[in-house]
Amino acid sequence: MPIDLYYQPGSAPCRIVLLAAKSIGVELNLKRTDLRNKEHLTPEFLKLNPQHTIPTLVDSDGFSIWESRAIITYLQNKYGKDDSLYPKDPKKRAVVDQRLYFDATSLSPGARYAFGMFRGETLDPEKMESLKKTFTFLDTFLEGSEYVAGDHYTLADISIVLTVSTLATAGYDLSPYKNITRWYAKIQKTLPGYEDINTKALAELKEMIRKGPPK
Ligand SMILES: N[C@@H](CCC(=O)N[C@@H](CS)C(=O)NCC(=O)O)C(=O)O
Q: Where residue 214 falls among pLDDT bands split at 50, 70, 90?
């Protein structure tokens, strides 16, 4: 039985799972799920995930799980060949978890809000100031550190690069953050499958932004 991933290539959290699966070395059976056609609201899909979000993973034994970061830690725990992406040492793992939760609760919600700028929405300066602070925290985590949770890349880099690359592609200026800029240049070359999985989707995103919001 295959491991199914319900996904859409344009969705950033779906690309977190695609990239992580590549690094973990696990093969996924990709099931394209068109949100515009409400394929995530069918009774069959709601049985798998009552929260009706993609990505949703259904393992070969029928176990289903959603939330991109919960999916990638599950895949690593079940199928990972070694623990370099998600260390077993409690303290090292805690640092990776901290970065994953930081992305889930601070960085990516801020980035999602700022993305409104590129859809022509007027943004609250206070919220944009708060995003700046969040980026400054990430820059501090990277001070003297090659990757976001230490000297080699982990699941946390995969999660965070999706947030940073989406915002950077939309035109958010990373130049004030010297450590993020250095890390971002490197991680794009480091992650297996990055070009195929993320670069192409970001080029499409850029084109969408260039065309502007639908009339
Ligand atoms: N925090 C979630 C976000 C998932 C999410 O919001 N996915 C969007 C697509 S990018 C979705 O499924 N939206 C449809 C819905 O919520 O009904 C994750 O990381 O997996």
A: low
